[in-house]
Amino acid sequence: MGVEGKERNRDLDMGAQVISGQMGKTIQRLRKAYNLSLSELAEQSGVAKSIISQIERNETNPTLATIWRLSQALDVSIERVLASGDEEPFIEKSSKADTPILVSDDGKMRLAIVGWIKTIEWLQWYDVQSDPGGELDSDGHQRGSVECLSVLEGEFEVQVGDVTQQAKAGETLRYRCDRRHIVRCIGDTPGRATMVCILKAAVMD
Which fold has domain 19-82? Predict the structure, then answer.
């Protein structure tokens, strides 16, 4: 998938704005648990002291990249940093207008990012719609990453290196995506599929 590279950086820097009101308290509690000052956490994370202070007071919505750097410095998962209270019920709804769309270079394939922003570092999934002949040519992700393409309508093929495999509606292709891979919508009809990318899956050599 093309999210890795330029699209992935865009998502990291611009995509994370749905932030729990508890996040600032969580950052502050973890920082104090490690007996870190604001200056020390800023030095370890690379996030400005003023920004961390604003986050702890819930005065700003940081990007996912900022939250990731803080979680690494505090040695906790990004899910824990973003988590709301354990006892709170959870239902989150995203409207069609709020769903980002990626478009292939040829303009014929569109990928709606329906995956949860909190999992983007290790799990990504998309609703794929393509005109006949659409092609998505992607660079590789991290070593060990695997992609799954489940065809809902039409027919697709996936090429990884010199190997090409086709799938029709009801069929799924699983393939390593830690190298260049190409997804094509073949045939004379539009295609639709669900694509799931498991980063660092480490299940293939």
Answer: 434 Repressor (Amino-terminal Domain) (1.10.260)
